Amino acid sequence: MTRFYAGLAAALVAAFLGVSAYLFLHNRNADAFAQCRSSQVAGGDIGGPFTLVGTDGKTVTDKEVLAKPSLVYFGYTFCPDVCPLDMGRNVEAVDILEERGFDVTPVFISIDPERDTPEALADYAGNLHPKLVALTGSLDQVKAASQAYKTYFAKQPADDEFYLVDHSTMTYLMLPGGRFADFYRRDIAADQMAESVACFLTADEAEG
After folding, report:
1. Where are the domains of the chain?
2. Cβ count near 52 (within 10 Å)
3. All residues at 6 or more sequence positions from 138 whose CB lies less than 8 Å from its CB, including other chains
4. Which tens digit of pLDDT belongs to each residue from 145-169?
5. In whole angstroms, what is the distance from residue 24 CA to residue 170 CA?
6. How do residues 101-114 score in pLDDT, each as one tens digit?
7. Topology, domain 51-207
8. Whether the Cβ atoms of residue 91 and residue 132 lie closer than 8 Å to each other
9. What is the pTM of this model?
């Protein structure tokens, strides 16, 4: 009788492991980008419609901006340290990807519309990268875009125009049509980012 229960228990454990393995592989296969992900966030949770203003002063929407694969970053041009490093890394990744045949747009959304006018952003983009799309807007427009991407920013108190702005530092990979793929933290290098983005774009092309 003891052997019977031991055998039954072993069979149940084997069945449980078999079902668990099937579900794991099924869910993994259902996510075409599983092998590319650096985060645990699945696509579709981040991003959404926005209306902002380009460097020419004209209004643009997410559909226009995100027509191609894009690396989206929220920052501001007066940022003394974090933003220059992050954006330098992002455009370097874009150049690496271009060498590999991938056309990716770097996007910079200002969270400091008070100082980051279209003219200021035009100078910023011109000095940083020819493909950079730099966007600003009213405070309400910027807040709406920030909320869609679940980012954070807050202007620090100051007695003059040299205030700082606290903000999130993630870079978001958006696939054509504004589909969220993944996000990248500050510690990822340009070549690592490019490798990850290339993985997503290759998988997306394979999916058709």
Report:
1. 1-30, 51-207
2. 24
3. 113
4. 999 999 999 999 998 899 999 999 9
5. 29
6. 999 999 999 999 99
7. Glutaredoxin (3.40.30)
8. yes
9. 0.83
